[in-house]
Amino acid sequence: MNALNIVHSAISRHVSENSVAIDATAGRGYDTKFLCELLKSGSVTAFDIQQEALDSTAELLEKNHLNATLIHDSHANMDAYFPPESADVIMFNLGYLPHGDHKIFTRFDSTKEAIDKGLKILKRGGIMSICVYYGGDSGYEEKDALLPYLKTLDCDLYQVIEVTFANWTNDPPFPVFIIKNQYEKPHVKRY
Ligand SMILES: C[S@@+](CC[C@H](N)C(=O)[O-])C[C@H]1O[C@@H](n2cnc3c(N)ncnc32)[C@H](O)[C@@H]1O
């Protein structure tokens, strides 16, 4: 088990074949490919700020006869492409492009803006996953700002689930899930 396996398995259980999915960080396209394979009759849109990432993603999809809409823009602008409550799943995979420029990586300010906008775009009952990579060249700044911010999300609207690898060392990436509640005031016991 690692962060990516956990994310893929949770998302597979949560969506149906015709769901609408957003990959907020296309990178080398592995998550975009995963979403395309999962959502046979749905739609997949992937964002990245680097043309190199989108070219890699396009190549991977083409090789596998899959289709997605690839957008060369920051995920912080995703509200320009999606209306409120229109997506079932939004995936973020933080950090830098594997085998790319390690100086270009996700930053808290734009990640937070994208999460805020993404939560509005998410349908009720939808799921957002955030695979948090930190340490190494991308440092700790984004993770250290992100975790306290996630704790501020309104629990009447969202469930935030942080998964930790309690006995792993060396900064293992970990997944966070945000589920948008079906109803604004869920009839669940609050602890
Ligand atoms: C860890 S990689 C993503 C890995 C990818 N999901 C995969 O399967 O290969 C992170 C990506 O986020 C991109 N990125 C950084 N800031 C971004 C932003 N503001 N908007 C969109 N993408 C961004 C980087 O260019 C990089 O390609």
Provide a compact summary of the structure:
The chain has helices at residues 3-14, 30-38, 51-63, 108-121, 141-150, and strands at 20-23, 43-48, 69-72, 87-93, 122-132, 158-162, 174-180. It has 191 residues and is of the alpha/beta class.
How would you characterize the overall build of this protein?
The protein has 191 residues and is an alpha/beta fold. It has one domain (3-180): Vaccinia Virus protein VP39 (Rossmann fold, 3-Layer(aba) Sandwich), CATH 3.40.50.150. The chain contains five helices and seven strands. Strands 3-2-1-4-5-7-6 form a seven-stranded mixed beta sheet. β4, α4 and β5 (122-132) form a beta-alpha-beta unit. α4 (108-121) packs parallel to α5 (141-150). The longest helix has 14 residues, at 108-121. The chain is globular, with a radius of gyration of 16 Å. It starts with a helix and ends in an 11-residue tail after the last strand. The mean pLDDT is 94. Bound molecules: S-adenosylmethionine. S-adenosylmethionine binds at residues 25, 27-31, 47-50, 53, 74-76, 93, 95-97, 104-106, 110, 133.
Helical element count?
5
Span of the ends, CA to CA:
29 Å
Please list the strands of the largest sheet in the order they lie side by side: 3-2-1-4-5-7-6
Q: Could you name the CATH class?
A: Alpha Beta
Give the total of beta strands. 7
**What sort of overall outline do the alpha carbons produce when their principal axes are compared?**
globular
CATH fold type? Rossmann fold
Counting structural domains, the number is 1
CATH architecture group name: 3-Layer(aba) Sandwich
Strand content bin: 15-25%
Average pLDDT confidence is: 94
Q: What share of residues is helical?
A: 25-40%
